[in-house]
Design brief:
Radius of gyration: 19 Å
Number of domains: 1
Distance between the termini: 43 Å
Length: 333
């Protein structure tokens, strides 16, 4: 069983882990040393085949039975920009747009940092006891950001981080957590491991092994959030072979690819995960952000049953957050 905290109600809720038995079986076999299974699970080709079968083919459409599937996993189609009846395939359901400007309100305060996605979040402060153990389990810092990226490795050394885990029921657009100018944008090739909690505690630092897109933002500019440099890392996963970069300065209009020198506005759509579940990691420079107290307190709740807590032996608890909701503030004026 895996539980999390609902931020709005502060209730402890149980998460339905999709494909739980299959994931446990496959990755336990991989852990036992089957190089063939491991390579298959890590394969872009397998990811593409499974994605087509489940999301694009006639078989996939029959499996989900569209509206019944939406109801089952808890999608609120009243939020959708398109009429519900137009969401007639699995891919359309997962790539749906919402009226975020109405249903995901955002603070106007300049110094706020907001959630990049509808997701479950865990935050880490560099001076928190035991945090390095958790960080090193989920990702190896230098490998995550790129071992050849010496400038960024130095910039974010001993900084804070936030891990946002998307699940299949979530809205799959990522939005900007801060405002700033793109200093760098690059892709690091890698595997396609699932971001299922059982996998995260089975394989060492999986986020550093998967294919990922890194955007470095300088927020200390005119119109910026003034929280220093921020790295936004979008990690692919099983069934997700790509992250579509599609920044829009106004709603979903006039989509643009991310390039160096662009000014990106906080709260606006930045990218789209292909269907499934995946992860966004934010890296901040040391002492530049103060995370919201409720998220920090939830991190170490010992009354919540978490796959992470059970495997690591210390409380590791996620909070369910909405995209564009407050997760922290700049610490400097």
């Amino acid at each position: 069983m895996h539980q999390f905290i609902d931020r709005h109600t502060q209730e402890i809720k149980k998460e339905t882990l999709y494909g739980d038995k299959v994931i446990k079986f496959l990755y336990s076999r991989a852990r036992e040393g089957s190089s063939l299974i491991y390579k298959m699970l890590n394969s872009k080709r397998l990811c593409s085949i499974l994605g087509f079968i489940y999301y694009d083919s006639f078989i996939g459409s029959k499996i989900t039975r569209t509206k019944a599937f939406m109801d089952k996993i808890g999608i609120d189609y009243t939020e959708c920009l398109e009429p519900p009846e137009s969401l007639d395939t699995p891919r359309k359901i997962f790539e749906r747009k919402i009226r975020y400007w109405e249903v995901r309100p955002m603070s106007d305060d300049v110094d706020t940092v907001v959630a990049p996605s509808d997701s479950k979040v865990y935050v880490g402060r560099s001076n928190e006891p035991g945090i390095f153990y958790i960080k090193d389990k989920f990702f190896q810092y230098e490998e995550l950001i790129g071992v050849d990226k010496k400038r960024w490795i130095k910039a974010f050394k001993d900084g804070n981080f936030a891990i946002f885990r998307l699940t299949p029921d979530k809205y799959h657009y990522n939005h900007l957590p801060v405002s700033g100018i793109v200093k760098d944008f690059y892709c690091i090739e890698g595997g396609y491991h699932s971001c299922h909690p059982e996998v995260l505690v089975t394989i060492c630092s999986p986020y550093s092994k998967n294919r990922r897109f890194i955007t470095i933002l300088d927020t200390d500019v005119e119109g910026g959030t003034h929280v220093g440099l921020v790295a936004m890392i979008e990690v692919v996963a099983l069934l997700i072979g790509d992250v579509v970069q599609c920044y829009s300065a106004e709603k979903y209009e006039n989509r643009q690819r991310i390039t160096k020198g662009m000014f990106l506005k906080k709260g606006q759509p930045k990218s789209l995960f292909r269907p499934g579940s995946s992860t966004v990691i934010l890296l901040f420079q040391r002492d530049m952000v103060a995370f919201s107290s409720d998220i920090i307190e939830n991190n170490s709740r010992d009354d919540v049953v978490s796959v992470y807590s059970r495997a690591l032996g210390i409380p590791v608890v996620e909070t369910d957050v909405k995209v564009r909701s407050l997760i922290g503030r700049a610490t400097k004026g």
